[in-house]
Amino acid sequence: MFYANQAYRELLGLDAEAPVPAPDRAFGGNPYLAEPIFRLARAAQQGRSRKEEFRLPPPGEVEDESAVEPRWFRISVQPMPPEANSGRKGQLTVWQVDEVTQDRVREESSFAKVQAAIDYLDNAPAGFFTADADGRIEYLNATLAQWLKLDLTDIASTPPKISDIMSQDNAALLAGAGRGDPQGTAQSGVRRFDIDLLRTDGTTMPVRVLHRLPRGNQLAHILILSRGPGEAQEAGTAELRFTRMFQSSPFAIATVDAEGAVSGTNAAFSRLFGTDADADPGKTKLEDLVDGANRQALHKALEAAIAGQGLIDAIDVTFAGPEPRSGRIYLSAISDKDDKSEAVIAYALDTTEQRALEAQFAQSQKMQAVGQLAGGIAHDFNNMLTAIIGFSDFLLLNHRPTDPAFQDIMNIKQNANRAAGLVRQLLAFSRQQTLRPQVLQLGDVLSDLSILLDRLLGENVELSLDTAGDLWPVKADLHQFEQVIINLAVNARDAMPDGGKLAIRTANVDEAQSREAGGSHMPPGEYVMIEVRDTGTGMSEEVKQKIFEPFFSTKEIGRGTGLGLSTVYGIIKQTGGYVYVDSEVGKGTAMRVYLPRHAEGAAEVDQEPVKLERKPEKPKDLTGRGTLLLVEDEDAVRSFAARALGTRGYEVLEASTGAEALEVFEEHEGKVDLVVSDVVMPEMDGPTLLKEIRQRDPDIKIIFMSGYAEDAFKRNLDENEEFGFLQKPFDLKTLAATVKSALED
């Protein structure tokens, strides 16, 4: 890269001395952005301008709380003018990266507010329409359409005129109102009419019209009340109708006097705040019904409403009481200044459940963001570890076990393999590891696993196993499920330093029980539940919120990586299950795992589920012949793989990108026996490369190299596409054996 400004460094979170990656590499580590980044890079390569906009967690941030929320970015490429390239080799391209998160937030907020206003207006208990000075109706709400027996779909295609819903005289009266007063100041801008509306069936409907005088050519706003000219004789009926509507409203409504005290309430208000709220009108202050931290804001809003101010923003509060409850209060001023007993109308909504769902959604988004980041880190580390392990193998070939350096090289390789294990745990959390699901009977699996658990737990921990005899089968990766139970058991052991009891229990959970167990998080259905309960120290609420995050640990430094429960979380989620924690400080913890019941029935359960799946034996002779096209954007990995395959007798053609690979393929006129390609690459990813090569040679064989699971990219391939798979990191022998097996098939 030729130049990057300070804002670009800050966006990526780079230090002043850190090298600056180009945008295609900075954002290309996210597998879900491969397509937009490829399109931008392709446009830059071809000297074209292009702009892409996408949503993702901010790169470079790991533990920053702001990373919980997604961010929007707009990236554009534009070639520099010809005069700017004089004296330089190659075309210069300007990449511009703009963060547009606030714009999107404002747009979404504005849209939500407008939609809420439209929904409220459409279903209001009064009719409403707007019309221009010529009498054309621009909008008509659903209530009025129902009164007039109009079809809203017909109105959208053929907007009516005022003269279509009332007599010509009344239509002219409304259409001409205010024309002599262009400033709209007459009678405070509102006129009232008692008229008859015309229904589509020819009948009439007596109403009162509140007409907002238009200013200039602006729209006239017209409110229709379903009350006729004879309303004085029907005052008792109208009052009864209003009382019934007031009391049956699902929203809490109260009138507040000029002193800020509650003077009248409906049934929903009493239900929300208790009967004491309106037991003695004029004695209970509205401010006393909310938590002390919110009273000042509510007091200021009340003062404004009592003073007659309109458009008062809603106040988010916490209601007073023993149980934590959140709510939102709306205040509306009453224009009658002579009646001090009713100065303000207060509407209260209970938002406790909504806030809980928002918190759950935010936590889910946070876990997703951290998972994407963990997957990106794992991808880069897998490339590094592949190179370390591969070049260690080269060194071991040239050193005998008696050489002093042999043991040092072995230590390097062994520690690289240990690091690969940590990377696999990161991939497990981000749900991008390779799973080999099979139908299992968990009772048998746990019975065989209990022997190993006894050794892991030690003598101070008593293990008990209670498995249901009629347990339903599940479909899961056997070894990953065993890893889940081992991780949960080890965590429970560490939470009981002085010993205790560990109980593992299984049970079938039917649809009704699943609703109670999982609430809104887990879809109702049939599950198999595995509970791991200990009598340890327990966890606080703060710890429970973080236990599934990678690298979070309450253990001493050096006693854990913080990846145990995050691995459990990823494995269970990738299997289609759910995991919940129930813990109390000083009383212990219960971890409950729910796996969906396998619908095919118990007849498919593997007879020997705990036996290791046999892998095909590697060929002893790893040499071969043929022309290989090796495509890898990481120089160290490509260098190792090319050297390893070259020493085994293959002719290796190298390419660092998908586009370069196509050029090499065409230069050799398609005389390539096998393509070995990385999956995530700039410009063109592996699946796209395969589709392009298939057009030139439908029978070409290919091996994909990736640290991600096969399913992570398999969805981008044709349904019946056949390919080999090489999991990163790999060593020299695995690479040579995989290539030879692919060529021999």
Describe this structure in words.
Helix content is about 40%, strand content about 20%. With about 750 residues, the chain is an alpha+beta fold. Strands 5-4-8-7-6 form a 5-stranded antiparallel β-sheet. A 5-stranded antiparallel β-sheet has the order 10-9-13-12-11. Strands 15-17-18-20-19 form a 5-stranded mixed β-sheet. A hairpin with a 7-residue loop joins strand 7 and strand 8. The model is unreliable at about 175-190, about 230-235, about 555-560 and about 600-615 (pLDDT under 50).
Strand order in the largest sheet: 5-4-8-7-6
Number of helices: 23
Give the biggest beta sheet. Answer: 5 strands, antiparallel
What sort of overall outline do the alpha carbons produce when their principal axes are compared?
Answer: globular
In angstroms, what separates the terminal alpha carbons? 43 Å
List the helices and strands and how they pair.
Layout: H1 6-12, H2 23-28, H3 34-45, E1 50-56, E2 71-79, E3 93-99, H4 101-122, E4 127-131, E5 137-140, H5 142-148, H6 152-157, H7 162-165, H8 168-176, E6 190-198, E7 204-212, E8 220-225, H9 235-248, E9 252-256, E10 262-265, H10 267-273, H11 295-306, E11 315-319, E12 325-333, E13 344-350, H12 352-397, H13 404-429, E14 437-440, H14 442-457, E15 461-466, E16 474-477, H15 478-494, E17 500-509, H16 511-518, E18 527-534, H17 541-544, H18 564-575, E19 578-584, E20 588-596, E21 627-631, H19 635-646, E22 651-655, H20 658-667, E23 674-678, H21 686-696, E24 701-706, H22 710-714, E25 724-727, H23 732-744
